[in-house]
């Protein structure tokens, strides 16, 4: 069910701490631009309380955004979880969907769309005459991907690369236990009978990189077409942290060797590195990738894409990826203003202590 401009709805961001979030400014700019009276607000809470559930079920709710620490907890309270929410094990968006006159709350994940759509946008700038539509993919065996990290953002990035057809996907992270958890998570959700079942490979040394991707590898895998960074932009200190940077740098220097298959998407040239960290905007990994000839994409682009995906879902009352990625739903001028706003947005510094409503009667 599409929200009309006559309907006022409240859309809250649930999580804690969130007083520093720029999301209200972005989303309210979009609402104003499209002539919608909807309002995006903050609801600071460290738990899914009855008050949160009452708000979500109220007639005045137009949906919600969800951030840490509630992305997994919220899922058990919703009527349905989208395939994307199930695959990533996280819900950052709640969409009210009308089905046969009944309203249900669907939890989904637009974080992966932030990754996926920003990578596709970068690819589109390289190949303006080639369709890089949201259903296009690489063929099985054509290209690999890589994610640097091991937390919740890593799962969204892995799902994004896999839905683009990249397989296997290599992981590099300082914490081996996090990587093991990520691999176990996807193994538990994949079909063993699927010939293109997601394969995740934990890289721990340069020698291992060479063994899989080097020119002298005996059973060389398809080259890495895109890399996503999902670690904080801080200088590495421990051996494990330094090894992550060493592996990433080595990957950035390897010549690309594609597989034999050919899919719908062109291989990026230069290849693309997206760093989800955006403080500072030019992160150490972005500097390294750019210096070694990769196209660098800042994390604010993923933030923009996931925000626009949420807006499309709320506007149309649909949690589908097709709707979330349909550029015709929001006019070009609104999208342009949203991009300019986020790209120039400065940090928000809270002036008062943030109150956790889960621990008060507020």
TrEMBL record:
Protein's name in the database: Aminoacid dehydrogenase-like protein
Lineage: Eukaryota, Fungi, Dikarya, Basidiomycota, Agaricomycotina
Gene Ontology molecular function terms on file: shikimate 3-dehydrogenase (NADP+) activity
A Pfam family annotated for this UniProt entry: Shikimate_dh_N
Biological process, per Gene Ontology: chorismate biosynthetic process; shikimate metabolic process
Limits of the Shikimate dehydrogenase substrate binding N-terminal domain: 13-94
């Amino acid at each position: 069910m599409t929200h009309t401009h006559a309907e006022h709805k409240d859309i809250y961001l649930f999580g804690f701490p969130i007083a520093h979030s720029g999301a209200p400014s972005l989303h309210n700019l979009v609402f104003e631009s499209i002539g919608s009276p909807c309002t995006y607000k903050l609801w600071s809470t460290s738990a899914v309380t009855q008050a949160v559930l009452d708000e979500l079920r109220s007639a005045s709710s137009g949906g919600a955004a969800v951030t840490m620490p509630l992305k997994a907890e919220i899922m058990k309270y919703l009527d349905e979880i989208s395939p994307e929410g199930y695959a990533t094990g996280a819900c950052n968006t709640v969409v009210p969907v009308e089905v046969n006159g009944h309203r249900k709350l669907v939890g989904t994940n637009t974080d992966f769309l932030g990754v996926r759509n920003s990578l596709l946008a970068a690819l589109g700038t390289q190949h303006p005459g080639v369709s890089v539509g949201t259903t296009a993919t690489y063929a099985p065996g054509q290209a690999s991907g890589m994610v640097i990290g091991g937390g919740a953002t890593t799962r969204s990035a892995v799902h994004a690369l896999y839905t683009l057809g990249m397989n296997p996907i290599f992981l590099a992270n300082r914490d081996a236990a996090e990587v093991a958890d990520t691999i176990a998570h996807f193994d538990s959700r994949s079909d063993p009978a699927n010939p293109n079942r997601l394969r995740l490979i934990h890289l721990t040394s340069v020698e291992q990189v060479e063994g899989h991707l080097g020119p002298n590898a005996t059973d060389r895998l398809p080259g890495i077409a895109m890399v996503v960074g999902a670690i904080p932009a801080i200088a590495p200190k421990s051996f494990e942290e330094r090894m992550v940077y060493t592996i990433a740098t080595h990957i950035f220097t390897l010549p690309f060797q594609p597989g034999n298959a050919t899919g719908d998407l062109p291989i990026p040239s230069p290849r693309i590195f997206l760093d989800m960290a955006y403080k500072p905007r030019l992160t150490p990994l972005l500097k390294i990738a750019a210096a070694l000839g990769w196209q660098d994409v800042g994390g604010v682009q993923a933030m923009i894409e996931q925000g626009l995906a949420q807006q499309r879902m709320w506007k149309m009352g649909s949690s589908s990826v097709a709707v979330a990625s349909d550029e015709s739903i929001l006019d070009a001028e609104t999208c342009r203003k949203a991009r300019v706003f986020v790209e120039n947005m400065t940090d928000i510094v809270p002036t008062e202590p943030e109150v956790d409503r889960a621990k008060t009667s507020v």
